[in-house]
Amino acid sequence: MRQRTYLSPTLRDVPADAEIKSHQLMLRAGLIRQTASGIYSYLPLGKRVLRKVEEIVREEMDDAGAQEVLMPAIQPAELWEESGRLGDYGPELMRLKDRHQRDFVLGATHEEVITTLVRDDVQSYKKLPMNLYQIQTKYRDERRPRFGVLRSREFIMKDAYSFDISQEGLDASYDSMYDAYQRIFSRFKLDFRAVEADSGAIGGTDTHEFMVLSEIGEDTIAYSDRSTFAANVEIAPVVASYEKSDESVESLEKVETPNVKAIDDIVSFLNVSKERIIKSLLFIVNEEPVLVLVRGDHEVNEIKVKNLFNKAIVELATPEQTKEHLNCEIGFIGPIGVPNGIKVVADHAVAAIVNGVCGANEKDAHYKNVNLERDFSISDFNDLRIIQEGDPSPDGQGVIKFAKGIEVGHVFKLGTKYSEALGANYLDENGKSQTMIMGCYGIGISRTVAAIVEQHHDENGLVWPVSVAPFDLHLVTINVKDDDQRNLGESLYTSLKQNFDVLFDDRPERAGVKFKDSDLIGVPIRVAVGKRAAEKIVEVKIRQTGEMLEVHVDDLEKTLQEQFKKLV
Ligand code: 9G3
Q: Across residues 549-561, what is the average pLDDT?
C-alpha cells in the first residue's frame, strides 16, 4: 500500500479530550476518527487491525465447531416483548419506528433473534449441540461514552450462542468457549485473567469475564497472590473468620451525638474503632424495607444483597423512605427498636462485634455497648460485604489483592431463560418436546483493539504484536528525490509485497517526519532505504526492541523471515 495516497492522517499533538493512551494513540496514528460522541469511523489502518482481530476470533470459533451467521441490527420490538425484557432496559436500548410506525430496537445483543432463528429451524435432538456466532455492530446508548472505542455507543462484538439438550452439554459448550477465549486472548499477546463474574440481568448461573489488566480498566479484579483464584470484586465471595473479643459485656448506653453521622465522625467523637461500629443501611427490596448491617470498616455489596433476595429489585432507600420506615434520618439508623415489618440481615462480621456502636433510630443519638441477642436479633447472617485487599482468598490459598481490568470477553450459562420464553424446543430421542439449554459468549472486538493498544505502546507510539499488526513491514524510502533510493525503494516494494503486507512510505516528506510516523504507526519491522542504497544496503529496524540491522538486499527476505520468527 503506497502512503502517498493512503488515508492515514497522523497527528503530532495529543487531542485534548482523549484521556487515555489508547484513545490518544488511535487518534494520533490515524486509526479512528470520532463522528459523534461515542460513535467512531475506522480509517484504513484501524480497519486492518479490526480485520486481523476478527480473523483470529473466527479461526478459533470455527475450530471450536461454531457456525458463523449474521443477524440484523434492526430487531422487531415484539421479540423483546416476548422475551419479557423490553422493559428491563431504559434509554440505553435504542428504539426506532419504521415507515409503518412499527416499533423496532437497535440490537444491543441478540439472544431474542438467535433463539427464534433456532426455534423455527431446529426441531430434533440430533441437530444439537449447536453453537452459532456472528461478528456484528451493536448499539447501546451509554449515558457517558468515554475512552474512545473502549466505551462507545456503537461497537463491534462477536456474540455466540450455544444450544444443548442437557446441563452437561451446556457445561461442555461453556468449557469449549472458555478454552477458545484463552487461546484468542493469548494470540493477541494480552496479559489477561478469566475472573468469576455476576450474571446480572441476563440471568443464568456460571459466568466468567475475561479481563485485560490495565490501570485504566473500569472493573476491579480480586485475585489471590498464591493461587489462580480471580473474581470480579462485585461478586467475589468473602470467606473470613472473625473472632469475638473476650471483653466483658457492658450495659447498653444511649449517647448524644449531635450531627455526628459519618463513620469517621463517630470514630473520633466516641473514640471507638471502626471495627466496633455496626454500619446500618436501609434498602428497598422488591418494595419492602430491609435493614442491612455490616461492620464499620466494611462496605455493603449490593449485588450480594440482590442475590440474597433472588435477584430482586434492590435500591438503597432514599432519605424520605428512611424517614418513612425508621422515623429518623439516615446517619442515625440502627438495628435496635426496628419496627417489626422491617427485616434485618447482617454480614458475618457483625456476629463477632462485642460492645458495639450503632445509630439509635433517633436524631443526634447513638447506642454504645450494643450486643447481639440482648439488644437486637438478626434473622440471618450472610456474606454481604465487598471483599477487601488483605482478606484471605476464598480458596484458602494466599490473600486477596486488587487489579484494574478492561472487560474484553464475557461467557454465560443462560439455561432456559430465553428458550423457555421464546419456545425454542426440540424433540428428544423419545419424541418428547424439551426446552433447549443455552449459553452465550461475547467478545468486544473493537474494545479488544483498544485493550491491545493499552498494553502494546511506548513513548514513540504503537508497538503492534505481529498477529494483529495492520501491516507486516513498513518500507520507507528516506529521500524520494535521490534516484538510487527511489529506484531501490520501488524495486523492493515490488519484490517484498509478494510475501509480506507492505506499507510503503513513498511520500516526498523529510526523513524526521517519516521516522516519527513510522514509530507512531508501530508496524513490527521497518525497512529504510537511505544513504547506502547505492551499495544495496538497507536498514532494518525491529519496532519492539529498537534493534537496528544493516542488511544487503540479497539477504533481506531471509533476515526478515528470521526476525519475524523471533517476534511471534
Ligand atoms: C440491552 C442493553 C444493554 C445490555 C444488554 C441488553 C448487556 C444485555 C448482557 C449481554 C449478555 C451477552 C450475548 C453476548 C455476550 C453478552 N448490556 N447485556 O443483554 F438491551 Cl441496552 O449482552 N449477550
A: 98
The CA distance from 384 to 386, in Å, is: 7
Distance, CA of 189 to CA of 212 (rounded, Å): 10
Q: Which grid cell sits at 201?
A: 440481568
Q: Closest Cα to atom 11, ligand 1: which residue?
A: 202
Q: What is the CATH number of the domain that holds 510?
A: 3.40.50.800
Per-residue pLDDT tens over the stretch 273-328? 999 999 999 999 999 999 999 999 999 999 999 999 988 889 999 999 999 999 99
DSSP, collapsed to helix, strand or coil, labels residue 255 as strand
Whole-number Å distance between alpha carbons of 165 and 110: 21
In which residue are the cell numbers 486509526 written? 31
184 found inside a domain: yes
Predicted confidence (pLDDT) per residue in 157-183, tens digit: 999 999 999 999 999 999 999 999 999
* Separation of CA 140 and ligand 1 centre (Å): 9
Q: Is residue 35 situated within a structural domain?
A: no
Q: Of the candidates 402, 361, 353, which has an alpha carbon nearest to the alpha carbon of residue 245?
A: 353
Tell me the three cell numbers of residue 273: 474503632
DSSP track, 28-89: HTTSEEEEETTEEEEPHHHHHHHHHHHHHHHHHHHHTT-EE----SEEEHHHHHHTT-GGG-
Cβ-contact 405, 220 below 8 angstroms: yes
Q: How would you list the strands of the sheet with 288-295, edge to edge?
A: 314-316, 278-285, 288-295, 343-347, 380-382
Name the nearest CA neighbour of 120 among 550, 343, 426. 426
Report if residue 319 sits inside a domain: yes
Helix, strand, coil percent values for the chain (each to nearest 5)? 30, 30, 35
* Residue 438 near residue 419, CB atoms below 8 Å: yes
Mean pLDDT of the region 391-395: 95
CA angle, residues 544, 550, 555, in degrees to nearest 5: 100
Same domain? For 158 and 191 the reply is yes
Please name the amino acid found at residue 73.
A
Query: Residue 442: which domain range?
Result: 45-237+402-453
CB 229 within 8 A of CB 394: yes
Atom 6 (ligand 1) nearest CA: 108
What's the CA gap between 344 and 243, in Å, rounded?
A: 22
Q: Distance between terminal CA atoms of the chain?
A: 23
Are 302 and 364 contained in the same domain? yes
Q: Measured from the CA of 141, which atom of ligand 1 is nearest?
A: 21
Picking from 237, 385, 222, the residue whose alpha carbon sits closest to that of residue 305 is 385
Task: List residues near ligand 1 (CB under 6 A).
Answer: 89, 92-93, 108-109, 140, 159, 202, 410, 412, 440-442
The answer to whether 462 touches 516, Cβ cutoff 8 Å, is no
